[in-house]
Specification:
about 325 residues; mainly alpha; two-stranded antiparallel sheet; 13 helices; globular; disordered C terminus
């Protein structure tokens, strides 16, 4: 299949040199709705990403900038307080900044994930969009997306945390005669990672469901489990791809980490600045891939299980039809 065979309409949807897709003035073109193989989903993911590059990276860069700002804040604090890097005060300050940054990043990433889903949905179903429109579509439900993301993360890690915390406490207390118990806890912790991966995959389509069908947290989680049932392997392959992309990003940052370990004070400032820029670029560039792919898996499962393609066309062609929004409203009422 040629790259643009699955586009409906005379326009191929390529981004213009003037950046029309970024500003939301692109001509509308709807992509073909039909059951897709995993390879076709990934192919469409990267095509949509390339053809609307600045739109997706612009949304993703907001969350990526949070990590950079938190790191700059931590480094600035340590510099002006003249705190040695290896001191307990530096460790405490670093932990507090990291915890605060993680909470802030988690909240903003949840909203940018939802905004990316909204943007790719508009493009995929033949509507115009922009960064402003994508955030306007999700701004009233930011707490919902944060709670869904929190639920997803907790379902993936609660067993591992429950097993590892006692091990850390025993190590801290210096208890050396409980090696058998430690071994059992570590074994169950590793098993918990496997369970957590399956649990995360089951809940992975909750944010697309919440955005597209306006479901609350519990209904979105149930909807995700319903759509993923029997199809977990596809999303597992996506997670493997994301793991590989982040490994490449880590490899790009590794030389700068070595530079920081063997540099003087002035060189460290330059090295840290370059490292933050590289981390920002990697996060901004990789972040949208999973959001786009998860939306496509969500739509594909609806096409396979519920004939969403027929429902969408009927709403498009009916008098006063509202397209995807009308179809999703009907689906939500019947669910």
């Amino acid at each position: 299949m040629a790259e643009h065979d699955w586009l409906n309409g005379s326009n191929s949807g390529n981004q213009t040199a003037s950046g029309e897709m970024y500003r939301g003035t692109q001509p509308t073109v709807r992509h073909e709705l039909r059951p897709l193989t995993t390879g076709e989903v990934l192919d469409r993911t990267f095509y949509l990403y390339r053809s609307n590059f600045w739109l997706y990276v612009g949304i993703s860069s907001i969350a990526a900038a949070v990590n950079v700002l938190v790191s700059i804040g931590r480094l600035t604090y340590l510099h002006f307080k003249a705190v040695p890097v290896t001191s307990p005060d530096a460790l405490l300050a670093g932990s507090l900044f990291s915890l605060g940054g993680l909470i802030l990043y988690f909240a903003i990433y949840s909203v940018t994930h939802a905004a990316t889903v909204s943007a790719v949905s508009a493009i995929y179903l033949g509507e115009q969009t922009s960064i402003d429109k994508a955030f306007a579509a999700v701004k009233g439900h930011w707490l919902r997306y944060c709670l869904i993301a929190l639920w997803q993360s907790w379902s993936a890690g609660w067993i591992f945390v429950l097993m590892v915390v006692p091990v850390a406490v025993m190590a801290r207390l210096g208890l050396r005669n409980l090696n058998g118990l430690v071994a059992v806890l570590v074994f169950f912790a590793l098993g918990g990672l496997v369970y957590g991966l399956v649990a995360y995959i089951r809940n992975s389509l909750a944010i697309p469901a919440a955005v597209m069908e306006n479901f609350a947290v519990r209904r979105a989680m149930r909807r995700s489990k319903q759509l993923v049932a029997g199809r977990k392997g596809r999303i597992f392959l996506l997670l493997l791809l994301m793991f590989a992309l982040y490994c490449v990003a880590g490899a790009l940052q590794f030389p700068f980490a070595l530079l920081l370990l063997h540099s003087r004070s002035a060189e460290q400032i330059v090295g840290q600045f370059i490292s933050l820029i590289v981390a920002f670029l990697c996060s901004s560039l990789i972040g949208p891939v999973a959001s786009i792919a998860l939306y496509l898996f969500y739509i594909d499962e609806r096409v396979r299980r519920e004939a969403f393609d027929i429902e969408f066309l009927m709403n498009k062609t009916s008098p006063g039809g509202g397209g995807a929004a009308a179809g999703d409203q009907a689906t939500a009422e019947l669910a």
